[in-house]
Amino acid sequence: MSKPTILIVEDEAVVAMDIESTICRLGYEVFDSVPTAEEALSLVERNKPSLALCDIRLVGEMDGITLAEILRQKYNVPVVFLTAHADVLTIQRASQAKPFGYVVKPFQEKDLHVAIEIALTRYEAESNLALALRKEEELRQVKSKFFATAIHDIRSPLTQISFAAHILEAAFANIDHPHKQVYFDRIHQGVENIRQLLDNVLEMHRLESERLALNPVPTDVVKFCQELRDEVQNSAGDNYNIHFSTNTAREVVVLADPMILQRMLGNLLSNAVKYSPGGGTIFFDLEITSEAMIFTIKDRGIGIPPESLQNIFHAFQRGSNVADIPGTGLGLSIVKMCVDVCGGEITIDSTVNVGTMVRVKLPLVHQQLLC
C-alpha cells in the first residue's frame, strides 16, 4: 500500500523544512513544499495529494483559508491548517473553510501525527460514504425504472383480461347457468385484487425511493376528517356506519400534509371496514390537545391475533385469521412510514373477534382557532 502524500504550503523556509522532516519521520511521503497558494493550485491541477498542510498567512494575493476552500470544493483535497495564529476571529474564519484539522505552531510531533491521521481517516470515511450514496442513488434509479416497466407490463394484460371478461359476461347474459355469475365475480375480484396489489407496491416504492417528506400547508383538520369520513362511508355501503367525533366544536387549522394524512387515515379506515365483514359501526375520533393531534379508529371486526401483532407493520404481513378477505399486507406498512415521517407514534390494541383500536398521535406544529 502506497504512503499518503502530503502537500506543504508554508512561506517560511525553515519551518517548511522542519515540517518536511517531521512528515518523513512519521512515515508519510512529501508531495511537495511550496510557499504560495498559487503554486499549490498549480501542482494540484496536475496531480492530487492525499492531504494538504496549509499555513493560514501566506505571501501572495491568496491566503491559506481561500486556498483550503478551493482545494475542498474544486479538487476534493482535505486540508489541515498549521499556523501560529490562534485568535478567535482567525479560527472562526478558518472553520468556514471546513478543514479536517487545526494545529497551532509551535507544535509537538505527536500533535501533528494525530491531526494527520484523524484527517486522513475522516476523509476516507466521507469518501466511502459519498461513494455508497452514489451507488444507492444509481440502484434507486434502476429500481424505479424496473418498477415502472414491470407494473406497466402487468397492467396492460390485466386491462385486457378485465375487458374480455366484461365482453363475455355480456355475451352470456341470456345463458342460464347456476355458477355463471360466481365465475365472473371471481374474475372481476381477481383483477381488482391484482390492481390493488400493484397500486400498493408502487405506492410503497414511491414512499421509499422519494424519501417521503412532509409538505405541510394550513389544513382544517376537522373538515379534512369529516370529508374523509364521508368518502369512506360512501365506499363502504349501508352496512357500515362510520361515526366521526372530535373534542372541539370549532374549526382547527394546523400545519399538516393532506397527502400524508390521506395515506395514513384512509388506510386505517379502509382496514376497519375491510376487517369488519359483518358491517357495524366504525368509530373515528379526533382529539386536539395543546401539543398533539390524536386520531383513534376503532372497529368491532375480526381483530388481530397476538402472534401477528408484533410484525403487523412489516410489508406483506397480515393477520393469520384474515381467511379469504382480500388484501396485500402493505397498508399498515404505508401507515407506519407516514407516522414516522411526521414524528408521531402509532399503537394498536386488538382482540380476536372483539375488534381493533388504532391510535395515532402526531405533534401539533401549529394551531390556529377560528371563531
Structural description of this entry:
There is one protein chain. Mean pLDDT is 86; it is low at 367-371. Strands 2-1-3-4-5 form a 5-stranded parallel beta sheet, sandwiched between helices. Strands 7-9-10-12-11 form a 5-stranded mixed beta sheet, covered by helices on one side. It has a 3-stranded antiparallel beta sheet with strand order 6-8-13. β11 and β12 (355-363) form a beta hairpin. The protein has 371 residues and is of the alpha/beta class. It is built from 10 helices and 13 strands. It has 3 domains: 5-107, Response regulator (Rossmann fold); 133-209; 217-370, Heat Shock Protein 90 (2-Layer Sandwich). α8 (258-274) packs antiparallel against α10.
- Tally of helical segments: 10
Reading side by side through the largest sheet, how are the strands ordered? 2-1-3-4-5
In the CATH hierarchy, the architecture of the largest domain is 2-Layer Sandwich
Query: Major β-sheet, in short?
Result: 5 strands, parallel
Index terms:
Rossmann fold, Heat Shock Protein 90, five-stranded parallel β-sheet, single chain, elongated, 371 residues, 10 helices
